[in-house]
Write a structure and sequence with these properties.
The chain has a single domain, classed as MFS general substrate transporter like domains (Growth Hormone, Chain: A). The chain is built from 20 helices and no strands.
Length: 446
C-alpha cells in the first residue's frame, strides 16, 4: 500500500513539474538562437537584450494574473491553459518574419512561463507530505534544469540545419507542451484547494491515496483548521505587519536567486564563450556541459534537501558561487583565458547554484506562507523574481560589452556574498514540517 501511495504522489508531482520543464526550455532555448536572430533582425546590444527579455515581461504578467484563476478554477486547470499557451508561443515565434511578431509570441510564452513558475511548485507543495515536500517541490527545479539541458542540446544539434536553424530550435517546444497538457488529465486537484472550495470528500480521497485513510483524516482536519479563520486572503493581508516578515524572506530569496547572475549565463552562454575566443559550434557545445552540470547537481540537491535542510545547502552553494565568480571576474580583468579556466569555474558556479539557491528558493517560497494567502503571497515573491530576471537579462549584454566580463561577474559575486550573510544570520530552517505547522511556527516566531 505504501508503495502504491508513493507512486501516486510522485506521479502527480512529476506531471506538475513538467510545467517547470517547459519553463526551463522556453527560457533557455533563446540562448542558442541569439547568434542567429541578432543578424536576422539586425539587433544591436540593446535590441538583443530587449528581444531576449521580452519573454520575461510576459513572465511578470503571467505571475500577476495567474493567482486569481489558480484560486478560482484550480491549480491543475490553470496549468492546462498554460500548456496550450506554451504550444502557441512555440509555433508563433518559430514562424515569425518580423521582430514585432517574434517579440509578441515570446511575450505570450512568457505568460505561460510565469503561470507555471508559480502554480507548479504551489501544486506540489500542497499535495506533498511535510517530510517529503522539499524533495518533491525540488522536482520542479529538476524539471526546469532538464528543460534547460534539452534546449541547449537541441540547439547544438539544430545549429547546422541552415539559415532557418533558429526557427527549428524554437519549434521543438511544441511537443512537450502537448504532452504536458495531456498528462494533466490524469492527476488530481490540490487537496488544499479542494478544501477551500468545500469539496471535502474529494480532498479526503486525494489525501487517502497519498497517505492512507488514517493519516488523511488527521491532515484534512489540520487543513480545515488552518482555513477556518478566513478562506480568502487579500493582498492587504499579504503586506500586513504580521505577514510582511515572511514576504520579505520570499522576496529576498527571489532577488538573490537572480542577482547571482545565473540567467545571464544561461541566456548568453554562447556569447560569453565566443568572447573567450570559441567558435559558435564550440560555444553551443559548452552550453550543453553547463546544462549537464546544472542537472547533475540539482539531483544532488533533491536528495539532500530534506536530509540536510535548506540552510546548509544555501551556505555551501553561496560559498562556491563567491569563490567561482571571484576567479571568473579576475580572469576577465586580466584577460587570461588560457585553457578552459573560465569554463571550469563557470561549471563550479553552476554546480553551486544548482545544489542551493536554485531549488531551495522555490521550495521555501512555496512553503512559508499561510494557506489562505499562499497564492497571493507567492505571486508577489515570484513577480519579484521575474522582475529582477528581466532587469539582469536586459542589462547584461550592455554591461558585458561596455564594462567587460570582470565588472559583471564581480557584481554577481558581491550579491552571492550578501546571500551568504543573509542565510547565516536571518533565514529560518523549514525542513520536515507540514505547511500548517510552518504557518504556526513562522508567524509566532516573527
Amino acid at each position: 500500500m505504501k508503495e502504491r501511495n508513493n507512486a501516486f504522489l510522485v506521479l502527480a508531482s512529476v506531471v506538475a513539474a513538467l510545467g517547470g520543464l517547459l519553463f526551463g526550455f522556453d527560457t533557455a532555448v533563446i540562448s542558442g538562437t541569439t547568434p542567429f536572430i541578432q543578424p536576422y533582425f539586425h539587433l544591436n546590444d540593446v535590441g538583443l537584450g530587449w528581444t531576449v527579455s521580452s519573454l520575461l515581461i510576459g513572465c511578470i504578467v503571467g505571475v500577476a494574473i495567474s493567482g486569481k484563476p489558480g484560486d478560482r478554477f484550480g491549480r491543475r486547470n490553470t496549468l492546462r491553459a498554460a500548456a496550450l499557451a506554451f504550444f502557441i508561443s512555440a509555433a508563433g515565434s518559430a514562424l515569425a518574419e518580423r521582430l514585432a511578431v517574434f517579440i509578441a509570441f515570446r511575450f505570450f510564452g512568457g505568460i505561460a512561463v510565469g503561470t507555471a513558475s508559480m502554480l507548479s511548485p504551489m501544486y506540489i507543495s500542497e499535495i506533498a507530505p511535510g517530510e517529503r515536500r522539499g524533495a518533491l517541490v525540488s522536482l520542479n527545479q529538476l524539471a526546469i534544469v532538464i528543460g534547460i539541458l534539452i534546449a541547449f542540446f537541441s540547439n547544438y544539434l539544430l545549429a547546422g540545419t541552415g539559415a532557418d536553424n533558429w526557427r527549428w530550435m524554437l519549434s521543438v517546444m511544441g511537443l512537450p507542451a502537448l504532452f504536458f497538457f495531456g498528462s494533466l488529465l490524469f492527476v488530481p486537484e490540490s487537496p488544499r484547494w479542494l478544501v477551500q472550495k468545500h469539496k471535502t470528500d474529494e480532498a479526503l480521497s486525494v489525501l487517502a491515496r497519498i497517505n492512507g485513510m488514517e493519516k488523511a483524516r488527521s491532515e484534512l482536519a489540520e487543513i480545515e483548521r488552518s482555513l477556518a479563520k478566513e478562506e480568502i486572503g487579500t493582498y492587504r493581508e499579504v503586506f500586513s505587519r504580521e505577514i510582511r516578515p515572511l514576504l520579505t524572506i520570499g522576496m529576498l530569496l527571489a532577488i538573490f536567486q537572480q542577482m547571482t547572475g545565473i540567467n545571464s549565463i544561461m541566456y548568453y552562454a554562447p556569447i560569453i564563450f565566443q568572447k573567450m575566443g570559441n567558435g559558435t559550434s564550440s560555444a553551443l557545445m559548452q552550453t550543453v556541459a553547463v546544462g549537464a552540470v546544472n542537472l547533475t547537481f540539482t539531483i544532488v540537491s533533491l536528495r539532500l534537501i530534506d536530509r540536510w535542510g535548506r540552510k546548509p545547502l544555501l551556505i555551501i552553494g553561496a560559498v562556491g558561487m563567491v569563490v567561482s565568480l571571484a576567479v571568473i571576474a579576475g580572469a576577465f580583468f586580466m584577460e587570461h583565458f588560457e585553457g578552459y579556466l573560465i569554463l571550469v569555474f563557470i561549471l563550479i558556479f553552476i554546480a553551486s547554484f544548482a545544489v542551493s539557491i536554485g531549488p531551495v528558493a522555490w521550495v521555501v517560497i512555496a512553503e512559508i506562507f499561510p494557506n489562505r494567502l499562499r497564492s497571493k503571497a507567492m505571486s508577489v515573491a515570484i513577480l519579484t523574481l521575474w522582475t529582477f530576471t528581466f532587469i539582469v537579462s536586459l542589462t547584461f549584454p550592455v554591461i558585458l560589452d561596455r564594462l567587460g566580463g570582470g565588472a559583471a561577474f564581480a557584481l554577481f559575486g558581491v550579491m552571492c556574498l550578501l546571500l551568504l550573510f543573509y542565510v547565516i544570520f536571518r533565514l529560518p530552517e523549514t525542513k520536515g514540517k507540514s505547511l500548517e505547522e510552518l504557518e504556526t511556527i513562522l508567524l509566532r516566531k516573527e
